[in-house]
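Lab notebook, bench 4. Still working through the backlog of constructs that have no structural model yet. Next entry is a single chain of 66 residues. Request: give me the structure tokens for it.
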Amino acid sequence: MRRPPWKLLGLAGLAGVAATGVVIARRRRAQHDYSPDELRERLHARLAEVAPRAPPPAEPAGPGAA
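Model written out:
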């Protein structure tokens, strides 16, 4: 039975780590492509879609209400 070539296994492991780093770096880079003004506009648009403006709930009239 032949033992596995440890140098090749080590190089394969390093290549896997490097490939994972490249994938993570590309994902992070995509998040930083917006200028601050463009990012602010996009966030405001998303907020407007998710939470439409509604009047605040009326406070219940209690014993001390005017």
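Notes after review: Residues 14-50 form one domain. The CA atoms of residues 3 and 56 lie 72 Å apart. Flag for follow-up if needed.
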